[in-house]
Amino acid sequence: xxxxxxxxxxxxxxxxxxxxxxxxxxxxxxxxxxxxxxxxxxxxxxxxxxxxxxxxxxxxxxxxxxxxxxxxxxxxxxxxxxxxxxxxxxxxxxxxxxxxxxxxxxxxxxxxxxxxxxxxxxxxxxxxxxxxxxxxxxxxxxx
Length: 143
Description:
By secondary structure, this protein is α+β, with helices and mostly antiparallel strands. The protein contains 3 helices and 6 strands; from the N terminus they run αααββββββ. The chain has helices at residues 2-17, 29-47, 50-56, and strands at residues 57-66, 72-76, 88-98, 101-110, 117-126, 129-139. The model is unreliable at 9-14 (pLDDT under 50).
């Protein structure tokens, strides 16, 4: 009887610290739309496609960064056809969604330099469509 009670208490304490796994969350239509927006952005960036740029970027959005000399730089998105940039590959690290605003973190490996570049994309849901409103980036990860 004492062993049975001890085993019951032990099982209860284990379950208290290790709850049952939650079932996987249902796919999010917003997450899928954000992923497509990011895909469209990179198709536009790699190929120069103005159509993909317009599908993914808000016309009032901007690139923002601090250059290697320490100066803040900002330039408004140019939604025009350009030469594509194929000298890097992108890797999506995470997406956080907060109702009508989202943050996507990406790592870019470049054939131009050995260090990785990191982009933070801010997206807003504008009239039901997810668009990139700002892109900030930097180099390296600070421990």
